[in-house]
Amino acid sequence: MTESDFLAGMAASSRARAIAAKEITPESVLLEQIARLPPPAPLTLSAGGFDLIAEMKLRSPALGALQTKADAGADARIDAYADGGAAAISVLTEPTRFDGELAHLQHATTRLEARGSRRIPAMRKDFLVDPYQILEARAAGAGGVLLIVRMLSRTQLEALLDVALAQGLFVLLEAFDERDIDEAIALLEPRRAKACMPSGAQRLLLGVNCRDLVTLKVIPDLFATLAPHLPTWIARVAESGVLSAADAAATAAVGYDLALVGGALMTHPTPQRLVEQMLQAGRTTRGQRPRTGLTGSA
User: Fold this and answer.
1) Maximum Cα interatomic distance, the chain, rounded to a whole number of Å
2) What one-character DSSP code corresponds to residue 89?
3) Which one of 173, 198, 258, 270 has the fewest beta carbons within 10 angstroms of its own beta carbon?
């Protein structure tokens, strides 16, 4: 299997899901549901210079099943992530390789709203191909979505990106190499004014995923290699391969503002503690290397 085969397969599966979903819930119905919702929770970064998007997923193609004996359930995990200080929670909704469901996103947003304290957004993580799926995420209460740059054409990316921004969602564009980054920058530059709200909430993020899509192995050096190519005016996210506090510190040291962490947290016996350790390590490092370029950060 090649990298393009994997992404093409995931895109085809996602497209089929979107078509089936439209048959059950037309777009007009989603828009009616959205009209009754409050504004989505914003993604606000800390003054400490480093933040975490903590991920919930039941399975990973690289690691297999991620439920652990110590897992007390979704609510306990959401609380652990939030209490640990995560800036957002990523929720996998892809069913064929990650055992995800849209219902998992809905559950997470409901739980976060019920906490009634610090507002934390949930992000839909999936292989999104249709603007309808952005509306699905918004209707489920999400505050953000992830878009994979190399999986979509420029026209498709623009359509999904603009619908997400119109719905008040933040968008994480995911890149795997320098060419992806260049494509992402071409998309983001015309929308640069929307990168950060007056309140300091982030609307646009650019992430580097260091996982090889063929071997499924991580390439840790990729973070440092690609960091100089990331614009400093946008929030930069390190994805995959951040397993420990030392890893968080290393990504912060080369300029990343956030890390998206999934497998390490899903398999850790005390995920709140790991969130806290990663944040402390990243922020201590960033205390020596201040965050630059992100206007309006809290």
Assistant:
1) 54
2) E
3) 198
Q: What is the pLDDT of residue 291?
A: 60
Name the residue among 271, 269, 273 with its Cα closest to residue 70: 269
Are 242 and 261 in contact by the 8 Å Cβ rule? The answer is: yes
What DSSP string describes 177-210?
Answer: SHHHHHHHHHHHGGGGGGSB-TTSEE-EEEEEE-
- Sequence-distant (6+) residues with CB within 8 A of 238 are 207, 208, 210, 223, 251, 256, 258, 259, 260
User: For the whole model, what pTM was predicted?
Assistant: 0.93
Give the number of other Cβ atoms within 10 Å of residue 71's Cβ. Answer: 16
**How far apart are alpha carbons 56 and 77 in whole angstroms?**
8
Q: Collapsing DSSP states into helix, strand and coil, what is residue 170? A: strand
For residues 147-166, average pLDDT: 97
**Strand blocks (E) in the chain:** 43-44, 51-56, 59-60, 64-65, 88-92, 122-125, 144-148, 170-175, 201-202, 204-209, 235-239, 258-261
Question: How many other CB atoms sit within 10 Å of the CB of residue 175?
Answer: 24
Instruction: Examine the pLDDT at 72 and tell me if it is beyond 90.
Output: no
Percent of the chain with pLDDT strictly greater than 90? 78
Most confident of 63-72, 150-159, 193-202, 208-217: 150-159
How far is it, in rounded angstroms, from Cα 54 to Cα 88? 6
Please give the Cα distance from 53 to 140 (Å, whole number). Answer: 19
pLDDT tens by residue, 259-296? 999 989 998 999 999 999 999 999 999 987 656 567 54
Contact 109, 141 (CB under 8 A): yes
Helix (H) / strand (E) element for 104: namely helix 102-115
Q: Give per-residue pLDDT as tens, 83-132.
A: 999 999 999 999 998 889 999 999 999 999 998 878 899 999 999 999 99
Residue 63 DSSP code? T
End-to-end CA distance of the chain: 44
